[in-house]
Amino acid sequence: MIDRKSLVAKHNPILTRPDTTSPLTVGNGEFAYTVDITGTQSLYQTYANDDMPLCTMSQWGWNSTKEIGTTGTYDMKDVEQTQYTHNGKKVNYPVKRLVGSEKAYDWLRQNPHRVNLGKISIIYKGEDISISPEDIGDIHQELHLYEGKIVNTFTLDGHPVKVVTVCHGTADVLAISVDSTAELGIKIQFPKDSCNMAGADWHNFPSNNLHTSNLQGSLITRVLDSFTYYVNVSAADGYKLEETNQHEFTLHWQTQIGSKFNVALGFSELEPQIAPYTFHDCLEASEEMWHNFWETTGIVSFANSTDPRAEELERRIILSLYLSRIQCCGSLPPQETGLTCNSWHGKFHLEMHLWHSAYFSLFNNGHLLEKSLGWYKKILPKARENAAKNGYKGARWPKQVAYDGIDSPSIISPLLVWQQPHIVYMLELMYCQIKDQAKAAEFLQKYWEIVEETVCFMCDFLVEDKNGKYNLEAPLIPAQEEHNPVDVKNPTFEVEYFRYAIDIGVKWSKRLQKQRQEWVHIVGNMAPLPISDGLYLAHENCPNTFTHFNRDHPSMLAAFGLIPSERIDTATIKNTLEKVLECWEFETMWGWDFALMAMTATRLGDPLLAIDLLLMDTPKNTYVTSGNNFQKTRTDLPLYLPGNGSLLLAIALMLAGYGDNTDTPGIPKNGKWQVEFENISKFPN
């Protein structure tokens, strides 16, 4: 058996200087707090200047801004629609930002947005710590992964300081322990919310007419436009909490010089009805959560490997497990930057849900994925409306969306379709891990409505041609978002992914003894995949795939990588992969593309290439000290969690395999790789 505690601890991130690309985070899946090298957010501006805001965020913390002097909100009927023709009928989507509806278009893109719940920092002698990190010395910061705590030591004005930062394992409570000879305190500041990356508007934060912060005893009540939340502050005896400025509160020692204190801050959208937690409560709950996680999750060791890349791959796997546990397994699908900061106003992209979270099922953590599946059931009526407004059956899932289930106006979002099969694929992955027959039957009943409505939409969206073949036709945007939606026909990946997901629907119908002969017919009559010169094309009308569209996602490879396909010709897909490696602009790829290509290489029986692709040295395949996939060329994405999740999904395929091929098909057999793994399941056929 793998010594999990030692393996995990070996990869504890350690910082000895400020690194604005790699702040560390504690969290529990519903709540997270990201810190600088003080273990708090004391050097906030230093990090923000480098496009890495330090945030306190939750799954439940959303606001919709009300514009002064107006009714304050808009809905989709306020946006002028762009009209297209699909299969001979008129369809309308909120694509173009047309004259007369600009305000509604922008408002709906930006609202609801995720809120930064507050900045918690250390103060020295009642004043902010200098924003210059040079004033802080002897820095040693370590994230103890196995316990979920950050231990920070440094000197401040010659005084030694130790700060321990931790998040409760099941409650949205942040706890901080401080030990120093310096006269320290804690400052809590609340900004006006914003749709920006920081989720905060610090320029307007003193304005009471925009938001309020009221202190009663130890409870701070925050009121924004449409959102109220509470912060319950619990500290040791001898400390006083007081309001020192608008939206600013300090916790300071009253009786002696020097500081040794603990504080716990409970965040809630409901007024707290229970006694506040202590630091030790939070530490104990964190240790329990992380112990349970690390001792049961799928895990990998490359000990005794001689390939110099093995240690780095092991580090990426362990840290990706930690990051996805705190960022990607909450009650909502995760946004691309999780609970660290905002990307696209804090909204999540459903086409990324699979890359974030599908691996959970294969790593013995299907229960963590299932936390977010209730959201699909909740918004199912809206998904039905989304399909019906253009005359389609079933449920059409949105793309860029908040908790409300309403798609965002966008030149891309309303026309994207490859997110539609995801929920069916993820449910099948979960189902295949259930060994108990009664539980499997219960699972089928629980999620059949989701599968049925999703497959109904996909079938109705397909267009039958005169030869009886079912096609994906314009307007649509494929995973490679470089194409004009009116030109696209039969994108390789989407055609095969629709077919695969509809076939899963057939399997579910048979398991439940239901008849869905139309689905069976469509699976057997999907359009042929577009090929030219022995290569799979991006889509049927794109003969210049490898000359003019050789950028962004090489999505055609996913048709024989992410999913299996008996229709794929292995020689043709091998040639296609080789052509991508020859001509693609790798700097335009995204973090998950490298895992995607590694999965294709694995299914092609080339494990050496799979490793090369998974660890390719290119800007968007960078993994910083914290373990985050850092998109070097984008200031709006200082971290990119689909990269971490896709890495783990690819590792499951490379280790546990698929079908009858289960002998670590993605690991080279050249003697340089020694691998042990536990609790990782193979992909289904």
Question: What key attributes describe this structure?
Answer:
33 strands; 685 residues; five-stranded antiparallel sheet; alpha+beta
Provide a short characterization of the protein structure:
With 685 residues, the chain is α+β, with helices and mostly antiparallel strands. It is built from 17 helices and 33 strands. The chain starts with a helix and ends in a 7-residue tail after the last strand.
What does this structure look like?
- This protein is an alpha+beta fold.
- A 9-stranded antiparallel beta sheet has the order 1-11-12-13-14-23-20-19-18, covered by helices on one side. Strands 10-9-15-22-21 form a 5-stranded antiparallel beta sheet, with no helix packed on it. A 3-stranded antiparallel beta sheet has the order 2-3-4, with helices on one face.
- Strand 21 (239-245) and strand 22 form a beta hairpin.
- Helix 6 packs parallel to helix 10 (422-431), helix 6 (350-357) crosses helix 17 and helix 12 packs antiparallel against helix 13.
- The longest helix has 25 residues, at 437-461.
- The two termini are 28 Å apart.
- The mean pLDDT is 95.
